[in-house]
Write a structure and sequence with these properties.
By secondary structure, the chain is of the alpha/beta class. Helix content is 42%, strand content 16%.
């Protein structure tokens, strides 16, 4: 396949570099017009990683900044904002701009985070060295400026650094600056991961509060991040904040590619016929009322000669998902596993993410999965008590790949993947003795006695989780009516020439010998035959069906099978 006609902007998040070096650009300058038509004092845009947040703020920076305004005007030639009319272009180069990203302020201790913040603020101040010669600066201002510049400032002065810089720029230009803050929540996520959350929250509340709340020297601010952190009081006193999350309609098409933008990108690069495949892999996000494609994955796909791969998986941290999976119980394991089949789960909406509750609150966990890009909201509604709810599902095949890999790794560990493959092969090939042997090793090595508090639910969820890899070759169904009852787990082969599988599970407490589980396993097997659970499989043309009765107690398991039908 020929190379794309345009150079894809892989890793390019500087608007000037993208335009001057003639990278392919999806025109999002309509955002500038929307801001000029009416913006809040503070706007927070929350989106998953790799959705163009940094590039968007860079675009705003080069449009508004007074620095090199005439040269920057050429960057917008022929774009939507220029076509919108001269009344909008009059705002170009009209204001001082502060652009700061916190994406690198992610350390493993609060002391190191403060040090990193000091270096980050020093680099920011270096962009405004001319202020040291400004007649508007007094001795106190100059002394404070120098301390930030030399990264020798104490914590109180660092907390005021953004607000002070706004004041300095206003005094120098006589114009209120715009503040653009990228990845504001990166330090907070790191602090949660490395357990210095309270210290970080207190610092960030002061750092952002003095800059954004009743700052007489600020024109307006645009912030980006993955999530909204509200109940920790970072924004609790900020009554001028407009949060535009993935559930909001405002600015819903600004980050990521719309359907028409993705289609034009492919057409411009001579691969318009690839649109159906692109949609299947990288479409599926829903921001407000807008269908959105993952922009990073789309440009990587085109740059790699239209080769489908999970590009987003290789760039997005999965700390939150791993933390969720550490604490799943049997019921939640089954719910999470059902998502692999593109089913939905219901979760209460709470966009003010409370990081400490991630470990305890199911809805907070699901909201974190949604804000970080693993799930999308397919429906929003209120119940009769006016509580907001979402139906959530996995967006597309790319995210499915990431999701399955994370679940598998949690359940088995990297070294256990071969064991799991062997177990599933034995199950589908009817090798009952090997199936039981491998399943015993799974229980021995990967299950804690503390996991089995609700045995029926736990073992059902465990077996569903262990069969994640079957998706593609099999459709895995759970608790479905067939014959005269409801089977526990069934495997419907995509190719009906392959065998089907029925599992009926039983659990008991207090049994200490595997042999004592034999009657329970035989009862499960008898139930498969007596209630004709194979009925749905046979109706779909599956000719060979393996039937297993499986009994559990703690880490013990007994498995019986009387062959296939």
């Amino acid at each position: 396949m020929p190379r794309p006609k345009f150079t894809m902007p892989i890793g390019v998040d500087n608007f000037q570099a993208l335009r001057e070096k003639n990278y392919y650009f999806v025109d999002k300058t309509r955002f500038i017009k929307e801001l000029l038509d009416g913006h809040s004092a503070v706007t927070l845009l929350t989106r998953p990683r790799r959705f163009g947040k940094t590039l968007t703020l860079s675009m705003l920076r080069y449009f508004f900044t007074v620095e090199k305004a005439e040269g920057n005007r050429a960057l917008f030639a022929g774009l939507d904002i220029e076509k919108a009319g001269e009344e909008y272009m009059q705002a170009q180069g009209s204001r001082p701009v502060i652009f700061l990203t916190l994406k690198e302020v992610q350390q493993d201790s609060f002391d190191f985070e403060l040090q990193k913040m000091a270096f980050t603020l020093s680099r920011l101040y270096q962009e405004f060295l001319f202020l040291q010669d400004s007649p508007a600066m007094n001795k106190t201002n100059l002394a404070d400026f120098q301390q930030i510049l030399n990264h020798t400032a104490g914590q109180p002065l660092m907390e005021n650094a953004l607000a002070d810089l706004c004041r300095y720029l206003y005094l120098h230009y006589g114009k209120k600056p715009i503040l653009l803050l990228d990845e504001y929540d990166a330090p907070i996520i790191a602090s949660w991961e490395y357990d210095y959350y309270k210290d970080c929250i207190l610092f960030m509340k002061r750092f952002l509060g003095v800059a954004l709340k009743t700052n007489d020297y600020l024109d307006f601010a645009v912030l980006t991040g993955v999530s909204r952190v509200s109940k920790e009081s970072i924004f609790s006193d900020l009554n001028n904040l407009n949060v535009c999350s993935i559930l909001s309609y405002k600015y819903s098409d600004i980050l990521g590619f719309t359907d028409s933008e993705a289609e034009k990108l492919l057409s411009d690069n001579g691969v318009g016929n690839k649109m159906p495949e692109l949609k299947m892999w990288y479409d599926g996000y829903q921001f407000g009322n807008t269908e959105i494609y993952n922009p990073w994955s789309v440009i990587k796909y085109v740059d790699n000669n239209c080769t489908f791969a999970p590009y987003w998986l290789n760039t997005s941290g999965n700390v939150i998902l791993r933390e969720l999976l550490k604490r799943v119980d049997g019921q939640r394991r089954e719910e999470l596993t059902s998502l692999v089949s593109f089913k939905t789960v219901k979760a209460m909406i709470d966009e003010g993410v409370i990081y400490p509750e991630i470990k305890e609150n199911t809805n907070a966990l699901y909201m974190m999965l949604m804000t970080s890009g693993y799930l999308k909201a397919v429906k929003q509604y209120q119940d009769r008590n006016f509580i907001d709810w979402c139906l959530l599902k996995i967006p597309n095949r790319e995210v499915l790949s990431a999701y399955k890999r994370e679940i598998l790794t949690h359940l088995t560990g990297r070294a256990g993947e071969v064991l799991l493959y062997n177990m599933l092969d034995a199950m589908t090939e009817g090798r009952a003795a090997d199936f039981q042997k491998y399943l015993r090793r799974v229980l021995r090595d990967m299950v804690s006695y503390h996991d089995t508090g609700e045995p029926e639910i736990f073992y059902h969820g465990l077996m569903l989780g262990l069969t994640v890899l079957m998706e593609g070759a099999y459709r895995v169904k759970s608790n479905r009516e067939s014959g005269y009852g409801r089977f526990d787990i069934a495997f419907f082969p995509v190719n009906i020439a392959s065998p089907g599988v029925i599992l009926e599970l039983k659990a008991a407490k207090g049994i200490t010998a595997t042999g004592d589980l034999q009657p329970l396993a035989e009862e499960a097997l008898k139930q498969i035959r007596g209630k004709e659970y194979i009925a749905e499989l046979t109706e779909q043309g599956v000719k060979e069906i393996w039937r297993y009765g499986v009994a559990f107690s703690g880490k013990l398991v007994c498995l019986v099978s009387n062959g296939k039908e």
